[in-house]
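re the bet — no i am not wrong, look at it urself. input seq straight from the record:
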Amino acid sequence: MSQDKEINVKVPSVLAAAASLVVPGLGQALARQIRRGFLILLSFITMTAILHSLAADLGRRAGVGWPALVRAFERRPAFMVMASLILLALWLLGIYDAYRCAKDKKKPSTGIFALILIGFFIQGWQISEIDLVKMVKQAPEALPPLSRIMWPWDAAFERDTEVLDAKAMILAGEGEAPVRETVAEGQPYIMSEPNFGELSQRDKNNQMVPGTRIKVSGSGFEPNRETEIWWEDPIGNEFRPRENGQYLILTTDSQGSFEFEMTMPYQLTPPSAKGPFYHTLEARQITPVGPLKASEALLQTIDRMVETIFMGMMATVFGIIFSIPISFLAARNIMAGSKVTMFFYYLTRTILNIVRSIEPLIWALIAVVWVGLGPFAGIVALTLHTIAALGKLYSEAIEGIDQGPIEAIQATGASRLQTIMFAVIPQMISPFISFSIYRWDINVRMSTVIGMVGGGGIGFLLVQYIRLLDYRSAGIAVWFIAVTVAILDYVSAEIRNKLM
């Protein structure tokens, strides 16, 4: 009885409020709302630490302490004011909440936790560097590559090409200017005036210093046709020069001639290189000939998509083979016979939880170091995660089976192995099939991602296209991923309906 009286002793509401005035959450703890007080204290400390870290980062150039704080308010006034007000409101509301907890002795409102969520949302907005204005302003720049990804089929098929070109030598730096070549009548010809000059360079502030301005003329090309301009450095590296951010593409006149001006482009020259340096200016007219055929991007995408599907299939098969015996070790109703079996139960569960908590992408990075780049690394990564995931699902399904058949089999004097064979496994066939098909679907989806870290499959090809800014080829890969996943989703659903 005395113990009950001690538990029901009321803490003065003023004292609880005063305690939360000193330490947020302490008043709630004194009012027997220990979990509530702990969450408030932890949230207050976390929000304070995050705000301090963000303020220090925003004002790091101004120093530390008060100058950094002032600089942070100058750079992000809206965020700093809102975050500070939320923190102050949390402190004051925590005092009132402690007063209510001690006075009413019932669960108070959840308004203080809504305030905590708002505070973390505001800080998360700053940490995530969300900039809606920038997103809207730069939307026009994103539309061209997005349109290529959404409709990439111009790059899916191609024709053989015939190239009509002409070249001109240009001296960059000191040396003897190249001799102009004489070309037979009717042959394509290109000439630069002057045919020597300085390349564009970067100064000490990394600002571009334009090179020599040259006037280029050409003749003998097909009339009224687009002509691409290319530049080749002394060691054979080719690229397309730009003017005002655009590639140089011009159209010949009715006589097959053209004329334009350009700046000699930027080209990094090693300090140890010795001149003279002769570059090549080239004009090309490319004419498609012959029937349409699958492009290299399309063929590679199909090849990698097939590889991706089989990666998911192999990982699922290996995962099922290893996870079935492991699932029985992770089922409490099967392992509850003795302390030894329970030790293996807890050990198996712990290992499965650890392996499952690590994403397949991380396992793929480890597997690449282990077995090297390629689909085998992806299969290893997916298999490890599949074993852990299916082991957990299978074991929970085993723990949920009907105990009646198990007790009936055990009543006949059957051993543990016989009990599993004739009472457990027959009940597990249906959920095992369902979980296995579902995991196969997941593995195919994941195999499109782990290739981005070298785990093989179409993901590896996709990331290469994106790095090369080849958005049409990347769009082909994206379309194949979407269509393949949709088809496999339909197929897995049909298999599930047939077997279940």
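see?? Confidence is low (pLDDT under 50) at residues 1-7. told u. also Residues 2-130 form one domain. so pay up
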